[in-house]
Amino acid sequence: MPASVGRGDLTSGSDRLDSVEIRVTFSDAGAAAATWALAPDIGGARRRVYFCEALARSTAPGQLPLLDAGLILRLWAGSGRGGAATAELRPCRRSRLSERWLRFREQGPDSFHLAGAWSGDRRVLSAVLVSDCGRTAVEAAATGGKPLDLVFSDRQRAFLADCADIDADLGSLDVLGPVDTVRWRGVRLDHHEVTVEHCTLGADQPLEWLEVSKRVAPEGAEVVQASLTALLRAKGLEPDLGRGVRLRRVLESLAAAKGA
Q1: Residues 32, 183: contact at Cβ < 8 Å?
Q2: Other Cβ atoms within 10 Å of 22 Cβ, number
Q3: Which domain of life is it from (predicted)?
């Protein structure tokens, strides 16, 4: 089997949609209340998340060239040996994905997922290629000890070259962060089983948010989203639903800190 083709390559992927990820976010004053109400008292997997951006290409304050082009590059390192590089197109135009990527699912350290990303009324398509590279490689990239183009896999570089609307030029990017997160999987909220993740930028940047997410089959996702949102509101919690923390705000804060 050719290296560029993975498991599940024998059928057309033109109608492929693996899942829908429903996200509900609480930020600023609402984050503390939501954390107290929803996050378990113990456990939780700690991670440090970094983002890659082309700050040198910005021609005006606040510009984020990769994010503006719908490209999100992340690195994360766990408390153990785990770590990964993620290349995501969001929002993604299905027409940008060739049959090669619509058929690809998983091979070696690389896995591809095509999903709906739903947050409030915003519903977009997300195409994400993840490569497990390990904590050591992520930390080396975050400290400048290893070039980014050696952390992202060959398949990820091919994916970006084929499908992204912008040249990533991994060798010239800035690494922003970290964002410190604690994640609890399998949290029961009545009849829903969700992932709860608490995120902060650090003591010198008082930006805090809590995200409740659930990955479901596309069929019936609207009902699940409405039910989960209603459940959270019944607990006295008011989601952002278009307000509060968005990825742009996070990256702007990280970029400002890097330039300080």
Answers
A1: no
A2: 26
A3: Bacteria
